[in-house]
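During the no-cost extension, the postdoctoral fellow (Dr. R.K.) reprocessed legacy sequence entries with the updated structure-token encoder. One reprocessed record is reproduced below for audit purposes.
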Amino acid sequence: MLPTGVFTGPSELSDPVSQLLPGELFAVVEFTTGWAWGYCVADRRVGYVETIELTDPLEPTHIVVEASAPIQTCGDPMSPPIAQLPMGAQVHGDIRGAMLQIEGGCVPLSYLRAVGERDSDPAAVACRLLGAPYLRGGRTAHGIDCSGLVQLALQLCGVDCPRDTADQRALGDTLPDHAPLRRGDLLFCDDHVGLMVDDRMAIQVSHKAGKVAVEPFHCAHAAGTESEIERRRLG
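Re-encoded structure tokens follow.
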């Protein structure tokens, strides 16, 4: 089950701004030919989605907490996956032994947790997406951007997180330059954001590698320019 693209205009040729994960809600303000304009309920991100991608909402019972979760044939836990669900996808189903039966198949419970439960370590959540390639507007292991990585990691820990880096700068409290960094601190530079995994290394969408990596935090500014790094700590 693929995410739904959110665009600046009513066309897939428009700039991508985000993705709706399966089970996430989209509030429609108005319809145009084949497209709906509105906002993602979870983070208020405004944009266009294809009308055909919209479905009736279901009350979710579980959420995917691994990089992806297989949908398998019910009754055969060794069956090959017939589809995949991305991290953060919300599903409605009934527990059948070690599986959750949803519409279209069964998902192993080891990939899920009940809605209302929370992870406690955003850095650990982000590390489940190591190696995911960069994709502007992306929010899954198949493609993700820096603010999408931080948002997904914080959301699974119960933190209400905006979609864009500029808005994420309001999270937590500013750290003075002399304060030592620790796991879970946020670092910002221009339009780039990373999440510290210890006092020296950050998990981020690496500009050099083009994928999610753990490395020293690097700014996203052009060569020959300088920008200060802003450090923030969640409560």
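DSSP finds three helices and 21 strands in the chain. The mean pLDDT is 93. The remaining legacy entries will be reprocessed before the final report is submitted.
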